[in-house]
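Q: Here's a chain of 107 amino acids. Please give me its 3D structure as tokens.
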Amino acid sequence: EGRGEDEIDVLRQIVDRDPLDGDGLILLADALARSEKIDEAIQMLETAASIESFEAEAKLQHARLLVQQKRFQEAVPLLKASLQLNDKESVRNYLESVEKAARTAAR
């Protein structure tokens, strides 16, 4: 548990020094999510998504986090937005799987 908090502290310092460090924001979001700090992780990903060069990756990571939470419906628009910015076959396939899961969960 302590190591995760140390990692979060170091990443927070990086992001505090450079709030436009998209990689730092995404890494911080990942560390927060692993520590069950989901809302805070989502905040970091939304901030990263506001940085043009990180928007596609941040939206993809945000969607993945929502999928881990079984929030499939919420993940779909993020995946579609990520695809519009960066059309990757792997993301297209992931979107299809998430859409299927969302339909199954809605039943």
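Q: Can you summarize the key feature?
A: The two ends are 38 Å apart (CA to CA).
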